[in-house]
Amino acid sequence: MNALKAELYKASTLPAVWAGFALTVVGCIALEVLLASQGDVTGTDSLPMGTVGAAVIGVVAFSSEYTANSADAGGGRQITTTLTTTPSKTRVLLTKALTIVILIVLSAVVAMPVAVGIARPDVPADELLTSCLGATLYWVLSGLLGFAITVVLRNGVIPLILLILNSSLVSVSLLLTKLTSLAYWLPDLAGRRLFGSGVRTVDSGLDAVPGGLVMAGWAVLLCLLAGFVFARRDA
Amino acid sequence: MNVVLAELSKLRTLPLTGFTVAGILACTALLAAADQAVDIIMYVQAGFVLLGIIPVAHEHAGRQFGTTLIAVPARGRLLVAKSLATAVVMALTAAATAVLGGAERPVGAAAYLVFIGLFAYAVAVVVRQLIPALVGMLSLILIVSPVLADHGRWLPDRAAAELYQGSATIGALGALAWVALIGAVATVQFLRRDL
C-alpha cells in the first residue's frame, strides 16, 4: 500500500504524466467539438484520440526511472532509489502498473463525460456506457503495453514511436493486414472494436469481446515478459 | 567550417543517429519491396522527426551543451553550424529514401522529408528535451493533421506535403513560411536562454 502511494506520488510529480493526461482530455474534447460542428456525432467517436495520452502515461511512468539526473547532481537514476526503498522487484512492477491503470482510468473519467455531453448523441445510454468502458479498457491496455515495452527496453523512445504511429491512420499494423490477415491479431488492431459501433474502424478483424481478450492477452504476456526481464537483470 | 565539421563529427559518433538512419532505410526498402500502394513517405517521416530531434536533445541530456558553448562561445555561429550539419545528414538520408522508395516525385518527396526533419529540429531547440519534442511532433503530423482533414491544410506537414503531392511552389512557400516562423522562435530562444 505504501509502495503504491509512493508510486502515485512520483507519477503525479512528473510533468510528462500531466502532459499525457492533458493530451487525452483536451484531445478528446477538442476533437469532439470539431466533429460536432460538422454533423452527427456519437459522443464516443473522438475517443481513439485518447490512446496517445494513455501511451504517454504508460511509457513515461517507467522511462522516467531510467533518466539520468543532471551530472551536477550526481548523475544518478531514480530506479536505484526505487529499488533500495522497495527491494521486491515484483512489487515495484505491480505498483507501477497499478499506478498507470489508476491514472488512465482517471483521465477517462474526466474526458468521457465531457465528450459525450458535448455530443448529446441519439444513442441509448447502455450502448454509450459499453463504448465508454470499452474505450477505457483499450486505453488502459495500450498504456500497459507501452509500460511493458519500456521496462524491457529501459528507454521510452521506441515504445512511444510505435504506439503513436499505430494509433494513427498510417498504422504499421494496418499496413501488415494487407500482407496477412494474422495482423488482425496484433494488440492494437485486435482491440479496435472495443471503441464500439460509434467509431469508424477496420472492416474485418476480431469482434469486441474476443478482440479485447486477445489484446488483454498481449498486455499480460508482455507484462510477464517485462517482469521476467526486470527480475533477472541488474537495475 | 570547423564548427560544422565538429557538429558533423558529433552526429556521426552518436549511435542513435546511425540506428535511426539505418531504420529509415530498412523501413523504406521493406515497404518498397512489399509493393503495396502505400505512401512510404507517410511512414518514414517518423524517422526524420527523430533524426531532427537527436542533435539537439543529446546536447541537453547531460553536460555536453556546456562543453559545446565553451568550445564555440558565439551562439549564432553555433546554431548555424548545427543546423547545417543536421541539414546535411537529413538531405543525404532523404535523398536515399526517395530513391530507394521509388517516389513518384523524388525531389519533392526528399524536400518534404528534409522539411519535416528540420521542423522537428527547430521544435527541439525550443523545448530541448527528447520526449516532449517527439510526442508533440508525432502527434501533430500523425494524429492531429489527418484528423483535422480539410481544416488542417495549413498545418506544417500538410502545407509542405504539396511539395510532392500537389503544387511544388505552394508547398515550398508553405514550408519556408513554417521554417521561418519556428526557426525565428528557436533562434531567439537559443541566443537568449541560459544553459
UniProtKB/TrEMBL annotation, chain A:
This is ABC transporter permease. Signal peptide: none annotated. The keyword Membrane applies. Keywords: Membrane, Transmembrane, Transmembrane helix. The chain crosses the membrane at residues 12-35, 97-116, 128-153, 160-186, 208-231. It comes from Kribbella antibiotica.
From TrEMBL, chain B:
Keywords: Membrane, Transmembrane, Transmembrane helix. The chain crosses the membrane at residues 12-34, 40-58, 79-100, 106-123, 130-149, 169-191. It comes from the Bacteria. This is ABC transporter permease. It comes from Kribbella antibiotica. The lineage of its organism: Bacteria, Bacillati, Actinomycetota, Actinomycetes, Propionibacteriales.
